[in-house]
Amino acid sequence: MNGKFPQHFLWGGAVAANQVEGAYQTDGKGLSTSDLQPQGIFGAITPRAAGDSGIKDVAIDFYHRYPQDIALFAEMGFKCLRTSIAWTRIFPQGDEETPNEAGLAFYDRLFDEMAKYGIQPLITLSHYEMPYGLVKRYGGWGDRRTIDFFERYARTVFERYKHKVKHWLTFNEINMSLHAPFTGVGLPPESDKSAIYQAIHHQLVASAKAVKACHEIVPEGKIGNMLLGGILYPLSCKPEDLLETQRQNRDWLFFGDVQARGYYPAYMQRFFRENGIQVAITEEDRRTLRETIDFISFSYYMSGCVTADPEQYETARGNILDMVPNPHLASSEWGWQIDPIGLRYLLNVLYDRYQKPLFIVENGLGAKDRVEADGSINDDYRINYLNDHLVQVAEAIDDGVEVMGYTSWGPIDLVSASKAEMSKRYGFIHVDRDDAGNGSLERRRKKSFYWYRDVIHSNGTSLKDRR
What we know:
8-stranded parallel beta barrel; 14 strands; single chain
């Protein structure tokens, strides 16, 4: 593994505001769409009433405990921390003229704390949440006016933090709106395809406007997109399976094509036409989309298979998508298939397609950890998972792929997005809280904490090729 990772590789971890911060109505914060999904993105949409409570209301209390957590990240040697700004801390209803100063001040404090340790922020503007006020008053991203509200928010935070944040992302896993439209674009789950793709179009235009604003306000900064990297393989070498695999991969690559190339690809025009999907795209929209991202970021947890005859096979859910299981792969406790080589393959696919720098901003293993009698947590399964994936990142770099960095998902235990669980743990740092919200919130280093510290300190040379 010697020398394969670049000298200035951005090692770190990734979290999201709605999964760690808590303080869900503190300092003027408004209600977000995430606040109305107390059981996670696959749970029911539940209006909040006085006295209601959910596990994300406190989460791991990062809002108040961030100095302790940043110090632990620094102890591991983090060069970078990916987190998000809660839009509702800045514009509580989404359509205000003036931002909420208390919300802006919180992120000033957070970024200043990171700067004390030389940790670079990588900041997502919208990570699985938006102001519920925009959903209630305008219909979320289904209304073109939401583009302007988002641009105002983006310009506000770029101006405020332009000297503190140099790496930005627009929308987290933007392609997941096809599978969870309320979480992604604020539309009802039963919305038809025309409505969903129209909302997605508005979001793509808003993303391009944010890119333009970032280039103007933070000229030395870089801004990327963020894709759910759901790479799929044909289940067999039948030509029909190959064509269906290409079609399904294009379902999510389409988002990267628009954001990196600046226009709608021809295959989507045919898809819209053949499926009766109507999307209103103005000439001004087309001009706006030409403002393209500086780099591609993505999550990767698993791969899956595709067949032209899916009714013959059972599917398995993983990271939002339903996939036909690969018979050659093992699975995690949650049924997510483990495919380290798939990460190398995906890196090559994306770099071949876009020729832009890549950033792996989510990758990790959710598992049930056990605290031993002596207080230790021996999570060798997590170490093995991450080690094997990082070995494949090194191989991709050796292939010639330009990789900016790697931020593992959930370096500290957090509330899972899919079902709002604490028992599905990803972290190097254990948080004493259970699915019912009980626990002291005490932080505890796992065995993987020390392993990742060594990986960062050695710039990857401590990794072991276990093949």
